[in-house]
Amino acid sequence: MLKPTRNSSFFLILPALILVGGSSIIPIITIVNFSVLDVFYGNSFIWVGSKWFIQVLNSKDFYYTLLRTFAYSAIVMAIEIPLGILIALSLPRSGKLVAFYIIAIAIPLMIPLVVVGLLWLLMIHPQWGSLGVLLSLLDLRIDINNVIAAWSVIVFVDVWHWTSLVVLLCYSGLLAIPGRYYQAARIDGANRWNVFRYVELPKIKRVLIIAVFLRFLDSFMVYAEPYILTKGGPGESTVFLSHSLMRTAVQQFDLGYSAAISLIYLSIMVLFSWILYKLM
What we know:
Strand content: under 5%
Number of domains: 1
Radius of gyration: 24 Å
CATH topology: MetI-like fold
Largest sheet: 2 strands, antiparallel
Number of strands: 2
CATH architecture: Orthogonal Bundle
CATH class: Mainly Alpha
């Protein structure tokens, strides 16, 4: 019988390393290469150095889209994190209906992003959608051409889709709290707010940071739902960084400029991920 060697663990993770290298590292190297070149049709390349980065950092449109993306992430997290905690606290910790509640809450997470956008686009339609027809009976209408209405719709759809993730993470953290902490709190005469503040919140802090981390990454990369619901309108009011990147790379075929945007985009996400990791 062969004895395991010290290097045997490396061979066990080698397939995963190859997969990660093929799906992420190699494309990133390609993007870095494009970011310092001017790409023409016919595979003609000219070295331009930091030209594209300078143009991106001097572009007002880039900062506008970046600000909108940050604003969107901040708004949805400001709603989803407290709402997810509140729902998790209201769920029963035991009983026959626990499985039903968990499945019902997890259903939105199982729906693909494109389907979510199309689903709500049909629902708010004034003639075909159930929600749109109901509002029409009340002489109301969701006008996507209005900036406030457009933002309200995309934020509502994101909250509907992703609050479940926060709920499930917080609920798992609450279930892991030993019962003796609650017993000690009752003996000390702590009210419900004090139990949450001094017992539950410290115990789910790490899980909560993971929820913030995941929601920041997802919301900062948002693309499908706003694009389907508003097409970036009215005007440019719902054009986020991902939409601007897609337009530059795919529609304008400006690969060098879009590669520079991608690397700046990636750097921002890595920076915030590192900050959240340090908090954990």
